Amino acid sequence: DLDSLTVTAHSIDLRILGKGNKPRVVPLPLYDEKGKIEGREAFRALLEEYLTKVRPKWKAGPGHEKALFLSQKGARLSDDAARAVFNHAMQALGFKQFGYVVHSLRHSVASRLLNAGVGLPTVSRILGHASTQVTASIYAHSDVSEVEKGMTKTY
Questions:
Q1: What is the chain's alpha carbon radius of gyration, rounded to the nearest angstrom?
Q2: What are the angstrom distances between the C-alpha of 99 and each of 86, 94, 111, 147?
Q3: Which of 9, 44, 72, 85 is deepest in the core (most CB within 10 A)?
């Protein structure tokens, strides 16, 4: 569950509650060693607009005040509802035939991080794996996951 986010001058930090309600923070830096990361400023602007203009209009039910995305009833957006939003987006983008599921994003991000040289312990921590051995057993079989190969063909 996406619990909250913090927007700073240099990054967007997502706080996610994973399995067993284990919290983890996933940083989305706005800058790298070359300067601004393309698209991140637009993403940040959209998030700020959502947080200041859209989200305040939704009344959160008891216990859901911190939830970033709410259902029409004021509850945290359920896994099924998030999956439905994702599937609708895939359909609208013409990607439905590739069979992507929400979990595809997780694998794609992990593969891209590892391919970019991010250390196994860091990727393992972001994924919430109990150990780096779990991460290595899933991603060490190839340089690029099958999901990422499919996404590369799409673009």
A1: 17
A2: 12, 11, 18, 10
A3: 44
- Residue ranges of alpha helices (H) inside the chain are 40-49, 79-92, 102-115, 120-127, 132-139, 146-154
Q: With contact defined as beta carbons under 8 Å apart, do 145 and 108 qualify?
A: yes
Cα end-to-end span (Å), the chain? 29
Q: How far is it, in rounded angstroms, from Cα 61 to Cα 75?
A: 6
For residue 151, pLDDT over 70 is answered with no
- Indicate the DSSP class of residue 141: T
Place of tokens 């203009």: 53
Residues β-bridged to residue 16 = 2, 24
Q: Which two tokens stand for residue 95?
A: 């990607």
Counting residues of the chain whose pLDDT is more than 90, the rounded percentage is: 12
CA 70 centroid distance within chain: 17
Measured between alpha carbons, how far is 113 from 126 in angstroms, rounded to an integer?
10
Whether pLDDT at 51 is above 70:
yes
What tokens does 73 get? 């009833």
Query: Is 142 a residue whose pLDDT tops 60?
Result: no
